Amino acid sequence: MQTHTLARLWVTAQFGLLALMFGWPAPHWRLSWPALALLAAGAVLVLWVFWHNRPGNFNIVPEPRQGAHLVTTGPYRWMRHPMYVALILFMAGVATAAHSPEQWALWIALGVVLNFKAAMEERLLSGVWPDYAGYARVTRRFIPGLW
Question: In this structure, is residue 70 part of a structural domain?
């Protein structure tokens, strides 16, 4: 399968899962402190990402934009995909508030999709930026110091 087509499939899967999570009926919806903490952590991380990686430098599709540059400051100093981590945190807050096993199953599926999307993106970034391989050796994909 062509890279361009596969990239769009990962994005479609990501947004399909997000639509399911936001649209899934949650009769026991309750904003608890843990849910609010996860939602807030995701939102704060997104703001931090935008502070260091301005719109126009990144792409929703896991393909490097022409003229983009490698960002290694701010949250990118600690993890290679902070926007994905922000999304995982925020959606964990949604699943926590929904009190639904289906929400957690969708959340796990979202994590799997984002992992594959990140791996594809990294292969493409390595081909565009020679510095990326060194950056990837010292900076974890999602969880600082672990993974």
Answer: yes
Residue 140, classed as helix, strand or coil, is: strand
Indicate whether 97 belongs to any domain: yes
Which CATH number characterizes residue 7's domain? 1.20.120.1630
Rounded alpha-carbon distances, angstroms, from residue 5 to 61, 69, 109, 132: 10, 24, 20, 23
120, exposed or middle or buried, with CB in 10 Å at 0-12, 13-18, 19+?
middle
pTM of structure: 0.91
Q: What is the pLDDT of residue 147?
A: 57
Find out whether 46 and 74 touch, Cβ atoms under 8 Å.
no
Residue 40 falls within a domain, yes or no? yes
Per-residue pLDDT tens over the stretch 39-69 = 999 999 999 999 998 877 788 887 877 888 8
Q: Is residue 91 part of a domain?
A: yes
Cα–Cα distance for residue pair 93/79, rounded to 1 Å? 20
Question: Residue 72 belongs to what domain range?
Answer: 3-23+31-138
